[in-house]
Amino acid sequence: MRIEGTGRELLAEDRAGTLVVTVPLSSVTTGMSLRDTHMHEKYLESGKYPNAELSVPREGLRFPADGLSVEATAAGTMSIHGTSRPVSFHYKAQRSGAAYDVQGDVQVNMNDYGIATPSYLGISVKPPVDVAVSFRLLDG
What we know:
Blueprint lengths: L10 E5 L2 E7 L8 H11 L7 E7 L11 E12 L2 E14 L2 E11 L9 E2 L2 E2 L3 E11 L2
Antiparallel strand pairs: 1-2, 2-3, 3-4, 4-5, 5-6, 6-9, 7-8
């Protein structure tokens, strides 16, 4: 069984040479309200830990020239549930004028961030979770 959580809120900002991508966890939904309630209250504790953040030094990223794209792997720091861990993630970026269309993915183990393995009626979620994002980043 596959459970997919989606959200439409994301903030990307430059903080002193580090690109920080922030996702408000309360905006992530799975399509089932009871599961969302359990996810936010019991596991993510999104009231106490409202955001997930990926921080990446800008010098660790490749930015394509206008009309071109790049695909690469980079290192950063993922912060979830009050815990920060180094991560390696894959991304694709295409530049069009002053905008970059970005797609990225990373696998995180919930247990590494102090999040209990979700389980309901004898069905458990595997702790490694695939995270994928897609967004447009404006330069300047």
